[in-house]
Amino acid sequence: MATSLASAASAERLRSAEYKAASIQGNTHLYRLEHDKSVAFFTELEKEYPHHPGPPLARSIAIWFRELVARDDLDLDRFISPGYFNRPANEAMSEEDKEAFFDGVRQSQERATRYLEQHPGDIDARYYLGACQSALGVFAFTIERSFRKALKHGKKSYRIQREIVDENPDFNDAYMTVGSYEYVVGNLPWYIKWIATLAGYHGSEVRGFEYLTRAATKGNFVKDDARLLLMVMYVREDENAYALEMARQLHGKYPENYLLHINKAQILERMGRRVDAAKTYAAVARRALDKIPNYQNLPLDKIRYPLAQRLLALGSQDEALDQFQGAAEDPGTPGRERALSHLRAGEILDTMGRREEATAHYRRVQELPDYDGTHGTAAGYLRHPYDREQ
């Protein structure tokens, strides 16, 4: 009975308080990096709201987001790297997940179209049609690595959402798409921008920030999404204090999200706040070791060595030593990184005057396969302590 009433209500009104509350619950799973829970939640919500275009689209977004996290494509340094998404992906998305993504978008489009047939001109249904084009655009850019295809879908979405805000300036969710499109097109390199202009693509960085800020402060469903985009854009523009504020707001709301925690450390590092950055990186590692909810999903065997390198570069020698030793003793650490971790740990211990502990690490290097001359380096350190000045 409750389900049928919810379905009837959704058929009459797409932006109901009941649907918003349910949607927030599903998005909370997403921002906590509980992707499977988010997918399952929106799959069930599709049944409760069989006329609503929102749940199938949200399911698709959760599938896409899960893929980016699995590939480590949401690492901030990668995400803002020029040309990163122009290169072929190292991993291919499974056909099952691709099919599920496109199925959700297709179902959302069909539901929105049917709703428009029953409610001509409905602004919410049109918004979802625009949101579907946005989803296809980001998928084309990040998964299919097709900038041209992404721009094509982006332009379609922009036109729909632009019409909406022109018609109703208080429809604040639409400003996220309008703002991101304005920023992207306004940021095109000069040798592409003139072609884009001839093809009818126009944008402005200033308007992009203005519209996204509006979505982040006044949006109904998209506040967190807009904040996340603003964080990335501020980093690209070297406005790191603003980026840090966005990261802090989001991580404060979703403390289970280790990516946002790492983002804070990366931004602090860019700001030159080396001590604060090192403390933040170390805090991430401690939460993972303590198996704080969702931090236990961090692949420590993969991240410990690069994390230790970063801590050492930031001048946090004690924290770096802990991570090098942890990586060296973790059987899951790749062989080359285990050998290098023993070497780096020995070097740090030598600089601390802890010679006996250092030589133990150098001997462990010689018990492992020789990676890029690690045996020779360890043998040299066994004869003469490591000297940073040499």
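the 2nd protein, sequnce then structure:
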Amino acid sequence: MRVLIIDDSRAMRRLERDVLAELGGVEVVEAEDGVSALYKMRDIGFQLDLILADWNMPRMDGLTFVRHVKSTPNLRRIPILMVTSCSDESKMRLAWSSGVDGYLLKPFTRELVLQAIVSLGFEFTGHVDRPAGEDTRSEQSSFLGELPPDLRVRLINMSVPRQVGAGETILEQGEVPDCFCFVDQGKVAEIAAGSPGVETPEGKEPMRRELGPGSCFGVTELMAGDPLRSRFTALVPSQVGRLPKEVFEGMLEKFPKISLILSKHLAAQARHLELAGGSGDSDLAGRLEVLDLPTLVQAINLRQKSCVIELTDIQAEIVFLCGQVIAVRCEECEGEEAFYRIIAQNPRSFRLVVKPVDVPRNVQLNTTRLLLESARYIDEKHTTAR
């Protein structure tokens, strides 16, 4: 395995080189900036397995180097781990959109470096320790705990940690979240009106549920771009991981396993909060004459229901989780394309089953965007027909 380390600090290059040396069988090439790195790559015939790149460097910084490599067809396959002290979320978004495959914050430990490399898909015969505290942040019943170890470590390493004190608000009710948030350490309460109370420094407040290490929160509103229906407050001194929405969406697209586990986790939350509107299943059947299918979809989205619409005359179904369409299937296909085809067919008979859902997600667009795209799909079909 050949690794290129790019950093203008000789001490930092040595630190990273020493960590890699523990893996065994690793050849290290060093460069002090992006320009010299490109020359070094040329000298070795561009034969590299991994690049560790600093951000702030003279002549050519890390981001410019990443963009150059990822825009070159025969080089873009090389994974790049950005190793930097910059934790600004806007810069993380910029790095991800430029093509970085991983993000490691300085100062780091030996274990975090090794785990970041393993999370990119590399396997080593040597021993790689788990990061300290991983057992507390990856409980099997939590979202992070259900992720495969490589994806869990990757998600944690890409996030920006935030320390919060007991009673401190993390996300406010009515706020539109812009980051994927999870509990790294400590406990967080979801607080909403009409729920049982919990003692906070401000007195007794209504609480829906308590979230421990590995739990995520505010995800439904994040993906839909909607305001939060609850407030999230730390019950004890805690650490929360924050991953910019664009970065998280990129991970969902790149790793379908994350999307599948997230869908199951959100379904479990819906069952816990009884967002389906009752303690059991309930059915409603009818004909889509006065009320067309797009209007019915909008109504479910507005009421934030978890349910399934079965289109009985065309053998298709649309699955909702907290008002968002998460899965669509018809006889010909599934996902967004299936939704467009169903709307275009203008079905007449339906059966609506209100219940918690637990199915793999195959729709990535939020419901509003999905309806807009379906209208465009129908317009294009009519234009083609003419």
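Residues 143-147+154-273 form a domain with the Jelly Rolls fold (CATH 2.60.120.10). The chain has three domains: 2-132, 143-147+154-273, 282-385.
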